[in-house]
Structure formats: C-alpha cells, structure tokens
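Input record, target 12 of the design panel.
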C-alpha cells in the first residue's frame, strides 16, 4: 500500500508492516495504524508514521542506545493490550523532541512506545511512579553545550 508521510513523501509499505495501536496514542486516540520507517540510514532514528494522517509522524529512537540503564516494568493492562507472551517479542522506542541544534534534542522516557513485533501491536505507555520525565537530554551535557 502507498502512504503519504511527513518526512519521506509518498512511500510504499507492506500491509504486514502496519502496527495496530488499539487505543490510539495519547493525544491522538483516533489514530490506530502506524508504520515504523527508518529515518536515518544507520538505523538509529525512526519515524512512527500514521497510516491515515500524513502530517502525523514522530521521530523515535531505541532508548537503550542512549540510556543503557533505562528500565521499567509494564503494568498488566499494557501486557494484555499488547498480547505479550514473551519479552523477546518486545521492541521499545522513545519519542524525541527535535531541537535546533540537534544536539539539544530530548527523549521522552516517561512514555515509551512499546511494540509487540510478533503480533504487530503497539502502545505508548505512560509510566507512573517512575524517575523518568518527558525531556531527557539525548546527548550528554558536555556535547549538548
């Protein structure tokens, strides 16, 4: 299928690449279908692109690349929504707030995007009672200056 995207224009994606977000995502509850599209060639950054709304695309990354000690527990409701059977079926992303200059970009570690890659289900989980916030510097303080 062809979809119009925020950052890549018109692209072709396979139906099996579409992720279902049964509850939408916070702020966009009617958006239920997304594709994860590589944003950079080296595979560090991705776009969570709405299949139905071309202007809706979020830049994401794997949080463990930048925060190796990042850790959280999923509540049972999220595990059920994602139909998770095994930790191996999970991929985690964090949504970025892009900045100019780029080295001031921040990551939302309080609301990771969790994907069941086996069943193609996704959910943006809002962590409660965690030390994480919505804006963590993606790059170290020394680089960000």
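The sequence produced for target 12 reads:
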């Amino acid at each position: 299928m062809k979809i119009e995207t925020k950052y890549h224009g018109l692209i072709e994606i396979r139906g099996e690449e579409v992720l279902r977000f049964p509850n939408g995502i916070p702020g966009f509850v009617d958006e239920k279908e997304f594709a994860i599209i590589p944003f950079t060639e080296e595979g560090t950054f991705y776009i969570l692109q709405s299949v139905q709304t071309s202007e809706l695309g979020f830049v994401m990354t794997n949080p463990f690349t930048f925060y190796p000690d990042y850790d959280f527990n999923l509540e049972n409701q999220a595990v059920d929504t994602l139909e998770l059977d095994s930790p191996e079926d999970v991929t985690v992303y964090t949504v970025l707030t892009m900045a100019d200059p780029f080295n001031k970009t921040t990551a939302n570690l309080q609301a990771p995007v969790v994907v069941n890659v086996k069943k193609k289900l996704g959910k943006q989980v809002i962590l409660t009672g965690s030390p994480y916030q919505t804006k963590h510097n993606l790059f170290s303080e020394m680089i960000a200056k």
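The first helix runs from residue 63 to 66.
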